[in-house]
Amino acid sequence: MALERRHRARVLLLLGVACCVVVTTVLILSRKHSETPASPPSSANHDSVSSGGSIPRESSAGATAALANVPPAPLSPTLSEKLRQEIARISALTDLNQQTDALQKAVNQIALADIPTVLDALKIPRPGTLDSEFRMLLTARWASSAPKVASAWVEQNVNDSSRQQALNTVGLAWVAKDHNAAAEWARNLPEEGERSGVLTSLAYEIGSHDPEAASAFVAEVASGQSRDELAAHVAALWTEHSPAKALEWATGLSSEELRQHAIAAIATALGDSDPLAAGTLAVKSLSSGKVQEDAVVSVVQRWAQTDPTQAAAWVSGFPEGSLRDTALEELVKLWTGQDIEQAGTWLNNLSAGKSRDAAVGAYVGALAPEFPEMAAEWVNEIRDDASRFNEIERIAEIWLSSDATAARAWIAGTSLSQARKAKLLGAKAE
Q1: Do the beta carbons of residue 282 and residue 299 sit within 8 Å?
Q2: How far apart are CA 59 and CA 398, in angstroms?
Q3: pLDDT-derived band of residue 73, with 50, 70 and 90 as boundaries?
């Protein structure tokens, strides 16, 4: 028995030595293999996507530059599933700040060379997840590091509904790195709608710190509401720094419609610092219509906060018409909220006419929620029957909900027709 145990011990010792030799040999061979030049990337190389490998430089053997023209290798099923599980986990977070931080952290773990592979793996976003947001953050990160490569890849590989957003994302990341290069790329996009979209995004971004530079993009954007809004935005920002230069630019715009929007924005922006100049600009430089009315109302809104009496004197000088009616209505609503008695005193001295009816209607509407009895007295100042009846009904509906007994007694004595009285009283009775 003792001999047998000794024999067994010698056998185990020999087996242990043999295993050590084999392991040592494997380690030596593995080290030599790792020191040999790397073979061209294959699908297996992309297993580093979720491991957060270091970001390769753009100049590394030209590999990154080639990504724009080489279809991405498929992400391994295991890593693809892990990536989707991580995004789903982040999507389930209820705190938006936590979501944003977690998404950015996950994006930062993707190696630059692996980005096209990951983008391709998330090509079809899942409902209820942050797949699309993850793709855009990843696109922005790529464009921040390698804008030429990223832009070329997006142009060639993104052809779904997210294409414009992806192009805009590239442009915004690029413009932070190189203003001129980003603009040149955007201007050379072949499709007009996409080109206009990117140029608009660049202009908004640049305009936040250099509206004069952003103004150059306006004429290059396709005509339409987006261009009008861009012109107004640039004009307003520019007015804060140099109103004279902004106005010179706006008046020189070739499109009449574009010029109107830009000047209206300048007038609105001036309303805080010089309401009289702003109002004069809006009245004299803008054609009658909605754009002018909106600009005048914006000026009145600002002016009424600081000096409603002066604003009222200015608006009272308008000729009868839609502009005067609209301006007076807005003025009275704001003024009543500040000083009911002062607004009422001014209304008493306003000459009769359609615009006074509009102003009294605005006064009544502002009074009715808190002071229906006072509104009921003022409503009779409206001379136009149709306008007066409409305001009576509005007061009645409000008053019935707060004091039905008083409201019903007042309704019975109004100049409304019996049918209209019955409708108001009957609706409440039911």
Answers
A1: yes
A2: 72
A3: low
